[in-house]
Write a structure and sequence with these properties.
Strand order of the largest sheet: 3-5-7-9-12-13
Helix content: under 10%
Strand content: 35-45%
Order of helices and strands: EHEEEEEEEEEEEE
Number of helices: 1
Largest sheet: 6 strands, mixed
Distance between the termini: 29 Å
Shape: globular
């Protein structure tokens, strides 16, 4: 199995309830044993999570059933450790896609969950292909030809320029795809 992060040193930032010392030791040992990752340090923070950015006044709420199969924590993720070139398609209906590279113009990525691109999105992206409207598309440089989340579609202007910061696309309160600066989940 290809593990692109094998041998890497990581810093873990934990928010919320503090882990016990034996739980931290177990986490370190499992990361080393399973993924050959060395934990440089663990920072624990109890700061409250800020409220999300409101894109428009709330007029209604999109009802979403919450079940364990719809949780980001329990769904599988697939890592693509390369750029997706024009004419290529990456499809992962079982969960989320994480791409270590760009999605070039003429390329397409499709996922049942979220799509995270650690590069530029210049092609097409379809998250939540199984109807999960809570799915998001995140890219370091978001200048796509087309965005789709669930059955909602958004085509950005052809002359769209990079804004120079990471952005997130999600379904807003008006049942449209909105794009905003990505700070954190």
């Amino acid at each position: 199995m290809n593990r692109p992060l094998s041998g890497t040193t990581v810093q873990i930032d934990v928010k919320g309830p503090t882990l016990e010392e034996d739980e931290l030791a177990y986490l370190r040992s499992k990361l080393k044993e399973s993924y050959n990752l060395t934990v440089r340090g663990i920072m624990v923070s109890d700061e409250p999570t800020p409220e999300p950015i409101a894109a428009a006044p709330t007029t209604h709420i999109i009802p979403q059933a919450v079940n364990s199969s719809d949780s980001r924590e329990s769904e599988p993720s697939r890592i693509i450790p390369y750029t997706i070139r024009s004419g290529q398609t990456e499809d992962f209906p079982q969960g989320s896609l994480i791409i270590y590279g760009d999605v070039n113009s003429g390329a397409e990525v499709v996922a049942g969950g979220d799509i995270v691109i650690l590069g530029a999105l210049r092609g097409n992206a379809h998250a939540g292909m199984n109807g999960r409207l809570s799915s998001v598309i995140i890219a370091m440089d978001l200048v796509p030809l087309q965005l789709q989340i669930g059955n909602y579609l958004n085509r950005l202007p052809i002359d769209q320029k990079s804004r120079g910061y990471p952005e997130i696309a999600r379904i807003g309160t008006e049942d449209v795809i909105i794009v905003e600066k990505f700070v954190k989940f």
